[in-house]
Amino acid sequence: MLYLHNFTEVYEKQDFYKNFDYKIFENKKLSGVRGYMDEESGKYLLDEIKNTGELSALHFLDSGNYHHLSRLYIDLIKHPFNLVVYDNHTDMQFSAFGNILSCGSWIADIYENCENVRNIIIIGANEKYIKDCEFKNNDKIIFACSIFDVNMAENNLPIYISVDKDVLSKEEFVSDWDQGKMSLATLTEELHYLAGHYNIIGADVCGEPFIGDDYNIGLSNNINKELANIFVDILYEI
To answer: What residue range is the signal peptide (predicted)?
Structure first.
């Protein structure tokens, strides 16, 4: 099952999901969500997710400006798990406005407030962002260039996977944030590996292009199709 949060109308320009069972959340008129999430919008989205969504599915969150929706889905996990994130950014920088949840702080919020998470593994983050991250020397948080560099043999917990497509090189497509160096072939290889070796309890994807960039929206559509094909058959209810 695919769930799509349609904030920018980007999914109206794509068709990858039409080959699957899907539900679209029409969130384009919702304010207080882009980049930061205010209390009222956060409550609305959490209620929407609890009432009509499910954890054990693939969730498409629109652009990277809405990556903090991952935090709301992770609230549904009620047992120990590991979080694996593919992202060019650490998303562990707290806002200057206090504890407000943002696309740049949602992983830090999980670290501080989610008692069920055991390890947070961030793959593909830019070295300059890691250097500036205050959590970089924490044993619970692992930064790596590849999942194959991470020893997970002694911690065979269920996994939630979050993919921000800005981890990919601009040779693959152009997202709405600065991008990493990973190829799509590498990303899909690693996701196939995780899907084949671990219990994946949920996953999400963000990082869509600017709404006016039809060329890259088309490329992103093809990437989304590949990611959906990896996940849709292996996700199941916990």
So the answer is: none
